[in-house]
Design goal:
The protein is an alpha/beta fold and about 425 residues long. It folds into two domains: about 220 residues, Rossmann fold (3-Layer(aba) Sandwich); about 170 residues, Rossmann fold. The protein contains 16 helices and ten strands.
């Protein structure tokens, strides 16, 4: 099968092939805009060919640094917010063991302003060998900047001048507060390419360093992304399922389906959902447009949100992500007494039962008036995950341009920041009259 395949079996009832074919001309125009880098925000299209152009020297340096951290530290704190940490967190959860079998623990900071979270973190790391990877292009984003200031103080209080050897910075190559601090203190650093925005940056050092520390095979991850880069450079909707996915999304949006639910049947996908929500939410949600991204993990959420999805307001559609092959052989046992009446499932694997649950819910939701897009991934490993990451980024760029917005800016995020700076009294931000003080 294809590495990632869009199965139309559940969507054909809602969208005719002719409607998809009618989108082909629009898709070709946008495809040219992307690949010729002539669209709005094109200065941030560096991710487009990044997988194939990343240097071997940089990759080797990331691997060597990661190995050193893994072999000497108990904990790596990844400090970042949004795209600076979500991609790595998503892939780590998807590919690494669920229950504490990693050589090194990775924890996160700078993604919130909770005093409880910070105090719990500082209490937890006492007595442990700790390293920090702070990720920020500017170094002045409020949440990670506060977290890094707090954790850096703890590091120097704990390790003295040797703390500098435990701090790893991923930031702009020459500008920004974090670059200045890095150069001043001789921290080991990696560059965030200027032409790649945060939510598209997971395949750079932003994601690759913490993932390599976690034990993910980053070469295989990149190999999958390179394969996607090649295969998804075709403008044909019959050959490019990332573009086909984008076209289905926009047709549904034009019909009033304003919410998309990303559904998976694998708990390890839950953080991947969060990365996907930021990718599409920030890329498309502007100028009064966009499809609201939400997510569920089945079968768990069939027993909570499943009722609404089945019988609630018909303003949503689902995208179901499944993995065709499963490396785990968890088989349901035969029981002589059969008190629970489950012997009809004896000798079936949990994966087989899980996939039947997927089909059952997809059919039920389709029959209830919910359009369902099915994305089938061949298997859950480093290579296929790299492909899937690139698949969604390419689809997102296409979908946003089709809806008439710049996929690479996020102007709406700036207003809350300005309000917060005014309320906190940041120099240079004049206090305005606010209805709430």
């Amino acid at each position: 099968m294809a590495i990632v395949k869009l199965n139309t079996v559940y969507i054909n009832r809602f969208i005719e092939k002719e409607e998809i074919h009618a989108f082909q001309d629009f898709v070709e125009v946008v495809h040219d805009r992307i690949h010729e880098r002539t669209g709005a925000g094109s200065e941030y299209l560096g991710w487009l060919d990044w997988p194939s152009k990343m240097s071997e020297a940089e990759l080797e340096r990331i691997e060597a640094t990661a190995e050193s951290i893994r072999n000497t530290m108990d904990v790596l704190i990844v400090v970042g917010i949004g795209g600076s940490y979500l991609g790595a967190k998503a892939i780590k959860k998807l590919l690494r063991p669920s229950f504490g079998l990693d050589q090194i623990q990775i924890i996160y900071a700078g993604q919130n302003l909770s005093s409880r979270y910070m105090e719990d973190l500082l209490s937890y790391i006492k007595g442990k060998n700790v390293a920090v990877n702070v990720i920020s292009k500017s170094g002045t984003t409020t949440e990670p900047a506060i977290a890094f200031r707090t954790i850096r103080k703890w590091m120097y209080d704990t390790y003295g001048e040797q703390a500098a050897e435990r701090i790893f910075v991923t930031t702009d190559e020459s500008e920004g507060a974090l670059r200045k601090a890095t150069d001043k203190n001789s921290y080991t650093s990696f560059e965030i390419p200027r032409d790649i925005g945060g939510r598209y940056s997971v395949l750079t050092a932003v994601g690759l360093l913490p993932l390599a520390v976690a034990g993910v095979n980053i070469r295989e991850l990149l190999r999958g992304a390179v394969q996607a880069e090649k295969e998804l450079a075709n403008p044909s909707l019959e050959e490019n399922d990332a573009y086909l996915y984008a076209a289905y999304r926009q047709i549904l949006n034009l019909r009033g389906y304003s919410m998309e639910i990303l559904a998976s049947y694998e708990p390890a996908m839950s953080d991947f959902h969060e990365w996907w929500k930021q990718l599409f939410g920030e890329s498309e949600g502007k100028q009064g447009k966009g499809i609201f991204p939400a997510s569920v993990v089945y079968s768990t959420d069939l027993h909570s949100l499943g009722q609404f999805i089945q019988d609630g307001r018909r303003s949503l559609f689902e995208t179901m992500v499944s993995f065709a092959e499963d490396e785990y052989e968890s088989t349901i046992a035969f029981d002589e007494e059969n008190d629970d009446g489950l012997n009809y499932l004896a000798d079936k694997t949990l994966h087989e039962v899980n996939m039947e649950a997927l089909k059952a819910s997809a059919l039920a939701h389709m029959e209830g008036g919910v359009p369902v897009i099915s994305l089938e991934v061949e298997r859950m490993d480093d290579f296929h995950t790299g492909y899937l990451i690139y698949f969604f980024m390419k689809a997102c760029a296409m979908s946003a341009y089709l809806s008439g917005v710049n996929p690479f800016d996020q102007p709406g995020v700036e207003l809350y920041k300005q309000n917060m700076f005014e309320l906190l009294g940041k120099p240079g931000y004049e206090q305005k009259e606010k209805p709430i003080k």
